[in-house]
Every structure is written in C-alpha cells, then in structure tokens.
Design a protein that fits this description.
76% helix, 2 domains
Length: 116
C-alpha cells in the first residue's frame, strides 16, 4: 500500500466517522440554533480542522509509533489525564452564565467557534 492510498483510506474512514451523528452534530446544531448560521459554519470548520489533525498524524504513522513505545504511550496517558483533570477542575470552579429565559444571546463570530 502506498502512502497516498493509505492516506485516502484513512481520510474516508475519518470522514465517515465524522458524518455519523454524535457530539459534534449536537454541538454544531446547538451553535446554529443559538447563535445563527455563521456560528454553526464556524463550529463545523473547527471540527473539520480538528479531524484533519488526526488524519495527518495517523497517516504519518505517529499513532503506530506511540502504540508500540511503552514510554511514549505512558507519557501520552499522563498528559491526557492531567488535561482531563484540569478540565474537570476548571468546570467545577466556573460560574454559571446562562442567558435569561426567552432571551437570545448574540455572540461575535470569532467567539462562536470556541466551545463554552
């Protein structure tokens, strides 16, 4: 299998996974309904850019290198666990900031692409 053939196969697999309904679909739908069409398109663009990172490192073989190296895998698990802890602590410490019932918030396009 050549590099480009493998790259095409990985791209198709990732696109099919991205097309199935899931959290990404719910996030884009929410952004579109709450903040408008442009925010939904920006959210879709952000998700597509994130998927492209996975496609590139999978095609480059980085996933195989990490999977076969115990030290790199351990380091990746520790970094991922620390990140999840940081997200959890930040979520617990954050204050609730919801718009009053019936009021629609307007959000600048640049901030609409960031997840709340």
């Amino acid at each position: 299998m050549t590099f480009w053939h493998g790259f095409a196969v990985l791209t198709v697999v990732h696109v099919l996974a991205a097309a199935s309904p899931g959290p990404d679909f719910a996030y884009v739908t929410r952004q579109s309904l709450v903040n408008g069409r442009r925010a939904g398109l920006l959210a879709s663009l952000g998700i597509a850019l994130g998927l492209s990172v996975h496609i590139v490192y999978s095609a480059a073989g980085l996933a195989a290198v990490i999977a076969h190296s115990a030290q790199w895998m351990t380091a990746l698990k520790l970094v991922g666990g620390a990140y999840l802890l940081w997200l959890g602590i930040a979520g617990l410490r954050s204050r609730k900031s919801a718009a009053p019932a019936g009021e629609i918030r307007t959000v600048a396009p640049r901030s609409a692409a960031r997840q709340p």
